[in-house]
Amino acid sequence: MEKVIVFLHGAWVTPLCWEHFVPYFEKKGYRTLAPPWPGKEAAIDQQRRAPSPMLRGLGIREIVEHYESVIRRLPESPVLVGHSFGGLFVQILLDRGLGSAGVAIDSAPPAGIFSFYPTAFRSLGRVLTTWMGWKRILRMPFSDFRYAFLNRVPSDRQQAVYDRYVVPETGRVFFQAALSFASPNSPARVDFANPGRPPLLLIAGGSDHIVPPQINRANHGKYRSPSAKTDFKEFPGRCHWILAQDGWEQVAGHIADWLAGLPARERIDA
Questions:
Q1: Could you read off the pLDDT of 151-186 as tens digits, one per residue?
Q2: Where are the domains of the chain?
Q3: Is the CA virtual torsion 155, 40, 49, 210 positive or negative?
Q4: Radius of gyration of the chain (CA)
Q5: What class, spelled out in words, does domain 4-266 have in CATH?
Q6: Using CA of residue 179, residue 220, residue 89, residue 206, what is the dihedral sign?
Q7: pTM summary value
């Protein structure tokens, strides 16, 4: 049976954010896919110059359905690994019974998780106070990205990270996540008691500003079914750029070990 991982990126970036993880897991025998969100298929320079109109109003539901269509076309059930909003999408997809196992790294919270911590609000304050931001394509300035993503990355590397990875983004996903507590039909909802959910590993960065570790701990604590495996690991000193911050290999190694340690019936390589 082929081992497959589908990587799901988060907001403000593209699948390029997985450029360290993809070869790492390919060397371990996995075939990897890293599909972009709808409207984020073009080269990064082109996205910056002329963002796709598809981003205007693109929401959580549409992005999840896009990934679901990718997963359903695969011959085998893949492992799902997501970062930030990609981690939320992993949780939603697992709740739908998709994927053999999932890893949510610095995950945006599902509905029902308190997320209004000071550093999180400061990270997204400009977005959430943008008039009609839920209908607009937004840009994150370097100063905001540096605070939200790169607070533990050496200052002399931060501009290079911003220049390499950051693209304009749909504003809708942020408003949907922020208002999920007030919407019984929020697209960010998952069934925390779902007994049939595949195994899930939640990973937190201990120094993350935009998704403080308290959010990921609370997310882990919400899962209630004893028959659905749910594990948690926090990496001290890691910021939201945990995928490429110095020491990213420890994070990737923990994921690889966790996948290898799943019972045979839950492993992609069973």
A1: 999 999 999 999 999 999 999 999 999 999 877 889
A2: 4-266
A3: negative
A4: 17
A5: alpha beta
A6: positive
A7: 0.96
